[in-house]
């Protein structure tokens, strides 16, 4: 079951822009696939460079999607790509993060300002969704 953004921040230790992006990606997955607590046919692969703060996306995604490392329905791969691949039966969803935006986020010193900047862009500008 997903938890709120505030609870995700508590779990993670703070509310930063990368946690926020992962959380928003997980919300999209829940909405598109209409996930519920008993969903067992969904698998996600997160492909990212395994370095902070990029990996904070993983915590946010787990908190909102309900897909987790512990349940083995979430796999993490070190990659130069910035995407999440979600599969359910014959459906495949790819969420691609805009690398230029992620690079810009790393320059912010104030996390609240970074999140406000993301919100001003709109999530559809930051996350590209492709259903296959």
Overview of this protein structure:
By secondary structure, the protein is of the alpha+beta class. The protein has one domain: 60s Ribosomal Protein L30, Chain: A, CATH 3.30.1330.130. The protein contains six helices and five strands. The protein has helices at residues 5-12, 17-33, 56-65, 99-105, 111-121, 123-126; strands at 42-48, 74-78, 83-88, 91-97, 127-131. It has a five-stranded mixed sheet with strand order 2-1-3-4-5. Helix 1 packs across helix 3 (56-65) and helix 2 runs parallel beside helix 3. It is globular and about 40 Å long. The protein starts with a helix and ends with a strand.
Question: How do the strands and helices of this protein lay out in sequence?
Answer:
Layout: H1 5-12, H2 17-33, E1 42-48, H3 56-65, E2 74-78, E3 83-88, E4 91-97, H4 99-105, H5 111-121, H6 123-126, E5 127-131
Helix pairs in contact: 1-3, 2-3
Percent of sequence in beta strands = 15-25%
State the name of the first-level CATH class: Alpha Beta
Classification by helices and strands: alpha+beta
Q: Order of strands side by side in the largest beta sheet?
A: 2-1-3-4-5
Poorly predicted runs: none
- Number of discrete domains: 1
What pattern of helices and strands is seen along the backbone? HHEHEEEHHHE
Number of strands: 5
Q: Shape, please? A: globular
Approximate helicity band? 40-55%
Which CATH architecture is right?
Answer: 2-Layer Sandwich
Largest sheet: 5 strands, mixed
């Amino acid at each position: 079951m997903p938890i709120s953004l505030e609870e995700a921040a508590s779990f993670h230790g703070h509310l930063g822009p990368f946690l926020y992006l992962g959380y928003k990606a997980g919300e999209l997955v829940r909405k598109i696939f209409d996930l519920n607590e008993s969903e067992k046919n969904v698998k996600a692969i997160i492909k990212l460079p395994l370095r902070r703060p990029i990996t904070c996306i993983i915590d946010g995604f787990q908190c909102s999607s309900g897909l987790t490392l512990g349940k083995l329905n979430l796999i993490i791969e070190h990659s130069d790509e910035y995407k999440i691949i979600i599969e359910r039966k014959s459906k495949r969803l790819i969420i691609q993060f805009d690398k230029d935006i992620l690079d810009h986020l790393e320059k912010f010193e104030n996390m609240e300002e970074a999140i406000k900047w993301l919100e001003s862009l709109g999530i559809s500008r930051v996350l590209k969704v492709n259903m296959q």
